[in-house]
Write a structure and sequence with these properties.
The protein has about 180 residues and is mainly alpha-helical. It contains nine helices and no strands.
């Protein structure tokens, strides 16, 4: 196979310094998109991996480029990953491995989430101190009511965030206020 590709490359390309014909270039791009490793193609056709990277950046299909850049997740899926990390369900390392993300990408999503949801951020539950330390065994009905109200409010905020995510995805409009935007 190597000899066939070398013969084909030598027929279309006179020397190593000459340009590839567009038909061969498009064939090479399709090979890369189908999953052939770049190092194999670079070796077979006698070219650098940097040239292949430039070709893929400039002439590769949009689907391939999005997959390579981590755009394969929808906005709802990104927010879901961020929420799982923020709430401690997933560790950042596990999220990166399971979703194929880089650390930089996940950190960028986390920072954007903090800016975007500053007023709606879900706060961790906190334990309220008893009014009288001597009555620690007897629950205060007022404290219990406040705890239930707090849990209900946090659940409501979570439901509203999910509702906004779904509405933004279905109607393709931005509903959330952008951080730093001028209000009218």
């Amino acid at each position: 196979m190597k000899e066939e590709s070398e013969q084909k490359a030598s027929q279309i390309r006179l020397t190593k310094r000459c340009h590839f014909e567009s038909s061969l270039r498009n064939e090479i791009i399709k090979l890369i998109e189908s999953g052939t490793p770049r190092s194999v193609i670079a070796y077979q056709y006698g070219m650098s991996r940097a040239s292949l990277s430039k070709w893929m950046r400039d002439r590769g299909s949009k689907e391939y480029q999005e997959k390579q850049r981590g755009y394969h997740l929808s906005d709802i899926e990104k927010r879901s990953v961020v929420r799982q990390v923020e709430q401690g369900i997933l560790k950042p390392y596990a999220a990166r491995k399971s979703y194929g993300l880089s650390g930089e990408t996940l950190n960028k999503w986390l920072k954007a989430s903090l800016k975007e949801n500053a007023e709606l951020a879900v706060h961790e539950k906190f334990e309220m101190k008893d009014k009288a330390e001597g009555q620690s065994g007897v629950p205060d009905p007022e404290t219990e009511a406040l705890k239930k109200a707090l849990e209900y409010a946090q659940l409501k905020i979570s439901a509203l965030n999910t509702l906004i995510d779904v509405a933004e995805d279905q109607f393709k409009i931005k509903i959330r206020k952008k951080a730093g935007a001028r209000q009218s």
